[in-house]
Amino acid sequence: MQDLELLQDGLALMALGMGFVFVFLTVLVISVTLMSKLIGRFQPIPAAATESQNSRKSAASSAQSSTQSSAQNDEIVAVISAAVHRYRSTRHR
Amino acid sequence: MDKLVTLWEGSGLYNLELGQAAMIVVGLVLLYLAIYKKFEPLLLVPIGFGGILANIPEAGLAISALDQAIEVAKPAVLQQMAAVLGTTLDPLTNTEAWRELLKAVAHDGAAPDQVRAARDVAMNVGYSDGMLYSFYNVAIASGIAPLIIFMGVGAMTDFGPLLANPRTLFLGAAAQFGIFATLFGAVALTSLGVMDFSLNQAAAIGIIGGADGPTSIYVSSMLAPELLGAIAVAAYAYMALVPLIQPPIMRLLTTEKERQIKMTQLRPVSKLEKVVFPLVLLILVALFLPDAAPLLGMFCFGNLMRECGVVERLSDTAQNALINIVTIVLGLAVGSKLMAESFLSFETLGILGLGIVAFGIGTAAGVLMAKLMNLMSKMPINPLIGAAGVSAVPMAARVANKVGLEANPHNFLLMHAMGPNVAGVIGSAVAAGVMIKYLS
User: Fold this and answer.
1) Which DSSP letter does residue B61 get?
2) Is the complex ipTM higher than 0.95?
3) Is A33 in contact with B166 (Cβ distance < 8 A)?
4) What is the model's pTM?
5) What is the dihedral of CA A23, A24, A26, A30, to 10 degrees?
6) Nearest CA in chain A to B288
7) Would you say B80 and B110 are in contact if contact means Cβ atoms under 8 Å apart?
8) Which helix (H) or strand (E) holds B341?
9) Cβ of A10 and B202 within 8 Å?
10) Which of B314, B318, B304, B316 is nearest to B271 (CA)?
11) ∠ CA(B378), CA(B384), CA(B386), 5° rounding?
12) What phi and psi, each to the nearest 5 degrees, are found at residue B258?
């Protein structure tokens, strides 16, 4: 009789525990997704960062192809001014 | 001649009991596994050595001042303690019988203040708590050591892959099924009359399936301290065995084609997201499950120190020096629980058996959940990463990567598997919180 009670308790704890773990992590998934969206909207740094990374790469490759400094400098100036512009526009909003 | 006899009677050889000898052998086996087989050496070396120290006869490294006095003090001291404890010692029987009687009274019959008084008597005549006993009280009974280790783990964890693909949290949740299935298994064995576990003990055994050393130790120190030695040894030994336990289950449940699935590249995650994430997690824990707050709170704290970037020194200490110090103390303290009377029993075999079942079920549940998610979502998910949902960071993720590479040598799953892997840490801490809430 007592064994049956123990078994029931075990089953209840199993259902409750598993259910709660899922509910909690579901809430976590939702809030993390929301957080990422919010941050992505108000501070699109990752996009800018990857862009500048890409352009740095292309700058590096263009340097190798010996078209030399002036074209490269132009590109760098363009990239930097774009970044500054973007930074300012996000700041002033 | 008398002096010679005293010396002989004080020697380890004279006092060695069979159980202690067996436990010293167990300690040596643990050391062998750690040193030659490289099973989680960072923990099994201190645990094994602590186990040997705890079982040195007469030294009393793992027992309190009171127990030590009862075991070795002179008859006059014994009588003094008996008076304090409110019993009388029959002068006709020998001292051995007195010791037995006092032990029984001190551990069951006596009121707390009587026990405290008897302890004072023992302290007065110069006995003190054994070193390992003190380690246990300071580090484990208070819950501090597992929590500090959790902080260090938080400081070492990169949540990037998880933030890039938050749905992998479900895999970490699914793999916790191993914990609860094992809990139910332990209860079922009890009701069948095979073993004898209470619900608290069953919960502490189940948490082995969380594959998370500090969580296991934390939960069992709260719910079933008497099983702590066996549970900690099982948890760390099986964590070392993850590369052997998981792959057959993973291969059994997936087809060759599923194992070859390539996953899309993870998006870059901004620093701000990584800084905010531990705070979001902390707030959710505070709102929904305060019982998991010690574990996840320290975890979030460690992670925040890592990601915020302004306390490099603290983060560095948490993930190196501090975690190492605490690991030494924790290992020795766990070793102090490897005492013959609690470890050498049929139940220990049950714990070891149930522990491996817990790992297997957790792995299977993670893989099956990943298959389900792969069917339902547009983004392909390789079912192998589900197996990483049983925490065991980063071993389980490496195993998923390795099995994936066997199917397709150009498919690197490591970063994808880190998501469910750290999700598993959160999941098992949440499961631990639920159990503590439900049972205490």
Assistant:
1) T
2) no
3) yes
4) 0.85
5) 130
6) A24
7) no
8) helix B340-343
9) yes
10) B304
11) 80
12) -65, -35
